Amino acid sequence: MRKELLKTVKRVVIKIGSRVLTDANGALDMAVIGRICDEFAALRKKGLEVIVVSSGAIAAGRSELGLTDKPRTIPHKQAAAAVGQTRLMHAYELSLAPHNLKVAQVLLTSEDLGSRQRFLNARATLNALLGFGIIPIINENDTVVVDEIKFGDNDNLSALVTNVAEAHLLLILTDIDGFYSADPHSDPDARLIPLIRGVTREVEKAAGASGSAVGTGGMSTKVAAAKKAGRNGVATIMVSGKNKRIIVEALQGAEVGTLFLPSGTGLNRRKHWIAYTLKPSGRIVVDDGARMALLKKGKSLLPSGVVRVEGKFGRGACIRLCGLDGVEFARGLTDYSSAESLSIAGYKSTEIEKILGYYYGDVVIHRDNLVLL
Ligand code: GLU
Fold first, then answer.
1. Residues pairing with 180 in the sheet
2. Which residues touch 175 (CB under 8 Å, ≥6 apart)?
3. What is the mean pLDDT, run by run of 10 residues, along the chain of 373 residues?
4. Contact 267/310 with Cβ under 8 angstroms?
5. DSSP string, 187-255
6. I need a labelling partner for 134 at 20 to 30 A (CA). Which of 104, 181, 228, 284 fits?
7. What pLDDT shows up at residue 215?
8. What value, to the nearest 5°, has the Cα angle with vertex 83 and ends 82 and 84?
9. What is the rounded (10 degree) CA torsion for 208, 203, 19, 32?
């Protein structure tokens, strides 16, 4: 089955964690980077387009700055990233040059991808780079982002990049062989699970408990990434980047690591962007009737179903929709700001104009701008 799936893969996003790229002292491991770049070259020879999401900037910067511990303050992390990012790119450049391959540095922030225009612009740039036969190497622009607006981790970023780049597969290289039934470091009965058909709540729970991979993320951020990529119709393979020839083997369909298949219906790319790339700026709580209409009947959200409005947001913002139990079940773009939504909450659409003195339409969130989670 893997072989069949992999035959359809022409463009792959490869995410490489800091732990894979660094040695025991935390410095960039040139032997590993060299080996990985040899594999990129082999993929390119087979006609595959490769986009890399690489961590390791902070780690590389830390050893360059002579810091013995992981930097803890934000300015120190950002300084380390600024120093390390150039070292990281240089390492890739040196290792790919013998294969006559060139790299391009692409640094993104979640604000870049949160704007539809900049998102589409990033897509066009990546396409242009691939057209030139270049390997784009993406990282978060760590030096300028602050915690509140961070992607969080590069697992998340790599899942979003599958959408930006319209890729067919996400390959995550980490420091463990795949997804285990329990933490293999502490549980001798832990089994490697080769295939996961869709990330369910049970899988998410097991990932939280396994705590296996080290780095910014853990197993749970990898599973979350597989889920996000899956909602885009993209499968994820997770393997240990420490194994030789693992990239080529994984892409040839060898039974290595864990394959996460997408589950359910994939979202179109714009809806995927609404659900996963945009940061929600508020919450709307709806009554049971509205919740059912949205979940089961394919309806839009009317003001009559709005019970509470939380947070301050403008028209067009991304909002979490919650039921009376407080559980989020959908996300969408609002046609009315928080203040407007509050004023019209509980009223019929025909009363909007009377209440506000103007009218943007009958619905608070239109179906086309709504994604069920
Ligand atoms: N952007 C960070 C770095 O390059 C890594 C973030 C992550 O590994 O999730 O050092």
1. 192
2. 17, 19, 20, 213, 214, 215, 240, 241, 242
3. 90 96 90 97 97 95 86 89 96 98 95 90 96 97 81 91 95 93 83 92 79 56 94 94 94 96 82 91 97 96 97 95 96 96 96 94 95 92
4. no
5. -TT--EE-EEES--HHHHHHHHHH----SSS-HHHHHHHHHHHHTTT-EEEEEETTSTTHHHHHHHT-S
6. 228
7. 43
8. 95
9. 170
Please list the residue range(s) of the chain that carry CATH number 3.40.1160.10: 2-267
Q: Is residue 240 exposed (0-12), middle (13-18) or buried (19+ Cβ within 10 Å)?
A: middle
Residue 146 Cα to ligand 1 midpoint, Å, equals: 14
User: What architecture does CATH give domain 2-267?
Assistant: 3-Layer(aba) Sandwich (3.40)
Q: Which residue has the tokens 């790119």?
A: 89
Residue with tokens 């889920």: 227
User: Hunting for tokens 């009223």 — which residue is that?
Assistant: 347
Q: Which residues sit with their C-beta closer than 6 Å to ligand 1?
A: 17-18, 55-59, 81, 139-140, 142, 153-154, 215-217
CA angle 70, 76, 77 (to 5 degrees): 60
Task: Please tell me what DSSP assigns to residue 182.
Answer: S
Q: List the structure tokens of 64.
A: 């360059």
- How far is the centre of ligand 1, averaged over its atoms, from the C-alpha of 203 (Å)? 24
**Residue spans in the chain of domains classed CATH 2.30.130.10:** 280-372
**Which string of DSSP letters, residue by residue, matches 63-99?**
HHTT-SSPP-SHHHHHHHHHHHHHHHHHHHHHHHGGG
Q: What's the count of helices (H) and strands (E) in the chain, helices before strands?
A: 15, 15
The rounded Å distance from CA 153 to ligand 1 centre is 6
Instruction: Give me the amino acid identity at 87.
Output: R
Among 44, 47, 17, 46, which Cα is nearest to 33's? 17
Q: Indicate the residue type of 77.
A: K
Question: pLDDT tens for residues 36-88?
Answer: 999 999 999 999 999 999 999 999 999 889 888 888 888 899 999 999 999 99
Q: What is the model's pTM?
A: 0.84
Give Rg (Cα) of the chain: 22
106 alpha carbon – ligand 1 mean position (Å): 14
Q: Strands 195-197, 258-261: parallel, antiparallel or unpaired by DSSP?
A: parallel
